[in-house]
């Protein structure tokens, strides 16, 4: 009789344990709803986008309604509590800033320092996920970045500005972007700087002169060396790329907001997106002519 009672107790304990384990497993999953994005889900569950992608073997950010996602790392009793509490990873970074290097993304940086993408954007006043090589990012709300010093891949360095253009500069930028937009579809012509044909620096020369800023004809490298880096690009600023058809600064365009820029590529003047892999891996800096800043 006693043996039967013990067996019943053991069976009930096993069922209870299994039920708790099932609840725990269910709590570690999330069902995708209409309007969800990986960034939104990561933020609400206080994890990073990269964590979710790793736990679910996702190769990109594409998700679909009703998809089941793991939103926490599965652990065992042995790994749930570290044997030595003094060796635990701090919840927040000890570093106060991070300088963006080639291959970085906000998700990667957030995972590296155990913080959220939204936190990085809030602390640095970022409206989009666009970052550029050499950009110095704050890693906490109270962090300060002395001088916003940056270092570019070509070895040059300088202090970036976080100020908006002057009123006159904004007027020039607006007109310049209008001119550049009107040139979309113009054929590519090496050395060209008129509507009959344009190359990347020729577009800059023509559009800005028509926009009211008198500048001389220069190469992408020349314009890069004679402009100031900006930490928060606005429509009308310059965007520079490296290692396209040659090593070093080799291509440029006019930023028009929302990650888009106008440039003269091999297929003529067109609008492209800086977040596309080809451009994001070659993006060097956003800059501004001194007369506009």
From TrEMBL:
Bias (Low complexity): 79-97
Keyword Repeat found: yes
UniProtKB keywords: Hydrolase, Protease, Repeat, Signal, Thiol protease
Polar residues composition bias: residue spans: 150-169
Annotated LysM domain residues: 28-71, 96-139
Location of the NlpC/P60 domain: 170-290
Residue span of region Disordered: 74-100, 148-169
Signal sequence, renumbered to the chain: 1-27
Gene3D superfamilies reported for this sequence: endopeptidase domain like (from Nostoc punctiforme), LysM domain
Pfam families hit by this protein: LysM (PF01476), NLPC_P60 (PF00877)
Family: Belongs to the peptidase C40 family.
The protein's name in its UniProt record: LysM peptidoglycan-binding domain-containing protein
Record lineage: Bacteria, Bacillati, Bacillota, Bacilli, Bacillales
């Amino acid at each position: 009789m006693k043996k039967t009672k013990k067996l019943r107790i053991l069976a009930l304990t096993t069922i209870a344990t299994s039920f708790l384990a099932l609840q725990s497993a269910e709590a570690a999953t999330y069902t995708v709803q209409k309007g969800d994005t990986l960034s939104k889900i990561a933020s609400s569950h206080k994890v990073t986008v990269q964590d979710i992608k790793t736990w679910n073997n996702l190769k990109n950010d594409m998700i679909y309604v009703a998809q089941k996602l793991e939103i926490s790392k599965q652990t065992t009793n042995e790994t749930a509590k570290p044997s030595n509490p003094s060796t635990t990873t701090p919840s927040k970074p000890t570093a106060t800033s991070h300088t963006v290097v080639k291959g970085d993304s906000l998700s990667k940086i957030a995972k590296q320092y155990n913080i959220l993408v939204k936190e990085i954007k809030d602390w640095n006043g970022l409206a989009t996920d666009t970052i550029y090589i050499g950009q110095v990012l704050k890693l906490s709300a109270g962090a300060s970045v002395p001088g916003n010093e940056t270092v570019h891949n070509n070895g040059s360095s300088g202090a970036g500005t976080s100020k908006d253009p002057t009123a006159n500069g904004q007027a020039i930028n607006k007109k310049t972007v209008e001119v550049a937009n009107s040139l979309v579809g113009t054929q590519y012509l090496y050395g060209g700087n008129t509507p009959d044909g344009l190359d990347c620096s020729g577009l800059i020369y023509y559009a800005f002169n028509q926009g009211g800023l008198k500048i001389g004809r220069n190469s992408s490298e020349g314009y890069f060396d004679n402009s100031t880096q900006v930490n928060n690009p606005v429509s009308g600023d310059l965007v520079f790329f490296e290692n396209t058809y040659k090593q070093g600064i080799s291509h440029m365009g006019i930023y028009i907001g929302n990650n888009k820029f106008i440039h003269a590529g091999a297929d003529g003047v067109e609008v492209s997106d800086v977040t596309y892999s080809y451009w994001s891996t070659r993006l060097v800096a956003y800059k501004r002519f001194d007369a506009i800043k």
